[in-house]
Predict the structure.
Amino acid sequence: MNYIVLSESTEYGGMMIRGLFSYEIFGQKVWITTTHVSLLIIVILILVLAFLANRKFKKAKAEDTPGVFQNILELGIEKLDAMVEGSMGANASRFRNYIGTIFVFIILCNLAGVLGLRSPTADYGVTLPLGLLSFLLIQINAFRHQKLHYFKSLAEPYAFLLPSNIIGEVSVPISLSLRLFGNVLSGTMILSLWYSMIPWFAKIPVSPFLHAYMDLFSGCIQTYVFSMLTMTYLSDKLDG
């Protein structure tokens, strides 16, 4: 994974990936960057939330009145289940865990800027593996469902369309990853330019609205789009 690593003096507003420290492995210099730190914090946060949620639901009793934390968890789970079921129908039960996991991970990555962290999804080294993972899941389930007909379908409706159909399949992870990466990075760059070019007295009244749109609104929309496209591609293969 290659990173553009700049010194602290040339970084502003979180626009650039900043190298924190480096070490050598097999003669190659490897950098630990702000993206790695943000990812580590987000993964720890997800693990802590999962541990607390598991503990809460295990101790919950039918006669008990749910607290705020449990109500939020149940509401989130219900909404995610409804989204997956509405898009995938009878296949929802097989993929709700995967869709729920990438949804939570991506939305926390997209909202990292609100916490003062660099959004990991503004790094193509993060969004590309997400796209490849979804692509692998799509292809495996397409082959399991369609068997050898899957390879035959690549040459339909006419054999001369085989190259373009293969390109269409291969473009899925590129499309998924670039869409997420480009939208998050553009928001990061706009905020970086804003903070570097505008006088401090003009930042105070406007900055909260920019963060509300770039981090909250756009981040949630891109999470939803990535999840919906993954489910659409999966449904198309399973219904074919």
In short: The CA atoms of residues 4 and 35 lie 11 Å apart.
